[in-house]
Specification:
Layout lengths: L1 H23 L3 H26 L3 H19 L6 H8 L5 H6 L2 H32 L5 H20 L2 H15 L5 H24 L6 H19 L1 H8 L6 H30 L1
Helix pairs in contact: 3-4, 3-6, 3-8, 6-7, 6-8, 6-9, 7-10, 7-12, 9-10
C-alpha cells in the first residue's frame, strides 16, 4: 500500500512537471498565425488608405489641369515634362495618358479650359457691343457708353486677379510659340475680341470693318490693356504696391476708354471738315 501510494505520487509529480514544461515552452504557431493576421491586416489597411488617398477621376483631371495652367504658363509647352506635371498635381504619372492621352492632350485641355473660363466672363459683353456697333440705329454716345463698360470688364477680368494672371500666362505662351492648339485660342477668344473691336472702330472712325487699318487699330487698342499684364512687375514697382487695387483698375479702364473716345472725336472732326 505504501509503495502504491508512493508510485502514484511520483506519477502525479511527473505529470505535473511535464505539464509545467509544456506550459513554459513557447507556442510559436499561434504567434506566427497572429503575426500573419497582423501583417494581412496592415496590408489591408494600407490598401484601403491608398484607395482613400487616390483622388476620384474628376478630381484627378482637375488637379492635372491646374498643374498645367501653372507649369505651361511659366515654361511653355516644350519646357514642361509629364513627370513635372504629375508631381505638381500630386497624381500618378499614368494618370496623364489615362485621362488625356499624353502631354499634348493635357495641354489642349488646359487651353480649352482657359479659353472657356475667360469667354464665360467676357463673351456676352463682347457680343452685345459688337451687335450694337453693327446696328445703324445705335447712337454714337450710346455706343461709346457701351464701349466704356466693355473696357472696364476687360480690364477687371484680365488684370484684376492672380487667377487670371496664370490664365494669361498660358495665352501669352501660346501667342509667343504657337502650337497646334492655337486655333482653339483664336477661334474661342481672340477672334471674338478682335471682331468686336473692329466693329466698334469701323463705326466710330467711319471706316470699313475688316480693312487693314481698322484691324491694326483694334490690335493697338487691345494692346493698351494687355501691356499692363505683360509689364505687371514694372507696373507694380513704380506704383509701389504688391498688386493692382480697384482704383488702379478703374484708372486703367478710364485711360483706355479716353483713348478710344479721342480717336472717335478725331474721326468726327475730320468728317465735319470734309463736309464743310
Amino acid at each position: 500500500m505504501a509503495r502504491r501510494a508512493q508510485g502514484e505520487a511520483a506519477e502525479t509529480r511527473a505529470g505535473t512537471s511535464a505539464k509545467a514544461r509544456a506550459d513554459a515552452q513557447p507556442d510559436t504557431h499561434p504567434q506566427a498565425r497572429t503575426a500573419a493576421r497582423g501583417k494581412a491586416g496592415t496590408r489591408a489597411k494600407a490598401g484601403a488608405a491608398t484607395r482613400r488617398a487616390a483622388p476620384p477621376e474628376g478630381e484627378t483631371r482637375r488637379r492635372l489641369i491646374e498643374a498645367g495652367i501653372e507649369l505651361f504658363g511659366r515654361h511653355g509647352f516644350e519646357g514642361v515634362s509629364t513627370r513635372a506635371l504629375a508631381r505638381e498635381a500630386q497624381v500618378n504619372l499614368a494618370a496623364i495618358p489615362y485621362h488625356f492621352g499624353g502631354k499634348e492632350g493635357l495641354y489642349r485641355a488646359v487651353v480649352e479650359f482657359v479659353v472657356q473660363t475667360v469667354s464665360e466672363q467676357l463673351g456676352a459683353t463682347l457680343l452685345s457691343v459688337r451687335e450694337m456697333a453693327r446696328d445703324p440705329r445705335t447712337g454714337r454716345d450710346e455706343l461709346l457708353a457701351a464701349v466704356r463698360g466693355m473696357i472696364r470688364s476687360m480690364v477687371h477680368t484680365i488684370l484684376g486677379s492672380s487667377v487670371t494672371l496664370d490664365y494669361c500666362r498660358v495665352l501669352m505662351q501660346e501667342q509667343i510659340t504657337p502650337t497646334e492648339v492655337y486655333d482653339v485660342l483664336y477661334q474661342g477668344l481672340f477672334q471674338a475680341m478682335h471682331q468686336t473691336w473692329t466693329a466698334v472702330l469701323a463705326r466710330l472712325l467711319h471706316a470699313r470693318e475688316g480693312s487693314p487699318e481698322v484691324d491694326m487699330r483694334a490690335q493697338a487698342v487691345m494692346g493698351q490693356i494687355v501691356i499692363f499684364r505683360i509689364g505687371m512687375p514694372v507696373t507694380l514697382r513704380y506704383l509701389r504696391t504688391e498688386r493692382l487695387h480697384h482704383d488702379h483698375l478703374e484708372c486703367i479702364a478710364r485711360l483706355v476708354a479716353d483713348q478710344v473716345e479721342a480717336l472717335a472725336r478725331c474721326a468726327q472732326e475730320a468728317t465735319l471738315e470734309n463736309d464743310a
